[in-house]
Amino acid sequence: xxxxxxxxxxxxxxxxxxxxxxxxxxxxxxxxxxxxxxxxxxxxxxxxxxxxxxxxxxxxxxxxxxxxxxxxxxxxxxxxxxxxxxxxxxxxxxxxxxxxxxxxxxxxxxxxxxxxxxxxxxxxxxxxxxxxxxxxxxxxxxxxxxxxxxxxxxxxxxxxxxxxxxxxxxxxxxxxxxxxxxxxxxxxxxxxxxxxxxxxxxxxxxxxxxxxxxxxxxxxxxxxxxxxxxxxxxxxxxxxxxxxxxxxxxxxxxxxxxxxxxxxxxxxxxxxxxxxxxxxxxxxxxxxxxxxxxxxxxxxxxxxxxxxxxxxxxxxxxxxxxxxxxxxxxxxxxxxxxxxxxxxxxxxxxxxxxxxxxxxxxxxxxxxxxxxxxxxxxxxxxxxxxxxxxxxxxxxxxx
Length: 399
Ligand SMILES: [Mg+2]
What we know:
The protein is α+β, with helices and mostly antiparallel strands. The protein has three domains: about 1-165, Alpha-Beta Plaits (2-Layer Sandwich); about 175-240, 5' to 3' exonuclease, C-terminal subdomain (DNA polymerase, domain 1, Orthogonal Bundle), CATH 1.10.150.20; about 250-390, Dna Ligase, domain 1. It has 15 helices and twelve strands. Magnesium ion binds near residues 9, 10, 105 and 106.
């Protein structure tokens, strides 16, 4: 039996939340901007009226103002966004516990088992929209389909405040004419490569066939083919069912956005310092370093890497984390927060050093160990702030 999957997307989320607190925003073109006192701050979200002027998320304030002189600039209130996101999630939870968040303002819901209680997918979508509008004060667009990819296309298809059903019967008519860039994870470079071989629409992908797509883009090509033809069938995965990990982590939202490698290094070293100090005080080491990076739109990306040797030292964790980040995100773009986590935790001594024949590796580790143990004892005597790594001084990051 087909599943019923919903994708719910809060419309102009940041702007909508600001409008709840300041209803006059509803009648003027308005944009929520990072660092509004600085004309180089960027547009994080805009309302429908601002959209009409062609104002785009990500452009700088002065560019936006040039398109619309009367544009009202609002400051972001991240606490409230988290808060509203949680309230919307609580309403979802009354319909199903199979909820997979995708960013702060989007979620997939598997409501297959809820239909006896609440009606079919469209009825559930409509009632969710109505309740969120009434109880939270913002609007959502909902896509209803038999898989996650088409559900997501559906929530994009018509907005704001709309339900779009993409079924086995209508998906070819609805989805095939859409540009291929509308497909989940078809980014700009993938789209450009496909355009070069004459593939412009989702229908073109289906027409090309699995083999040709694979030839063009490798494994990603096959995945895109499955997306286009409705063969995608990944489950809606609630976050809390993920394998529970014993970990030591530290995350921080910075006083200003981080831009560039120096900023990132300073932040990561400060975070790794806390993580490693805590691990040493617990008497544990980690075998994997995980990093999560959040941008000003609250989109989070994360990655982890297994270490060659287990460690409880700042230097090992920080170097790995910086290396992961530079491979994970475009470091010239602003970063709002970073989390560094030591995973695969075990008791010190239990793991043992992996046999290595490089003596300089041993002496390097010994030196690191001596230095970091010394820092611990200084901190224990004089307090945590008594020793600060040079890179995090004067960076203005609030760390
Ligand atoms: Mg949204």
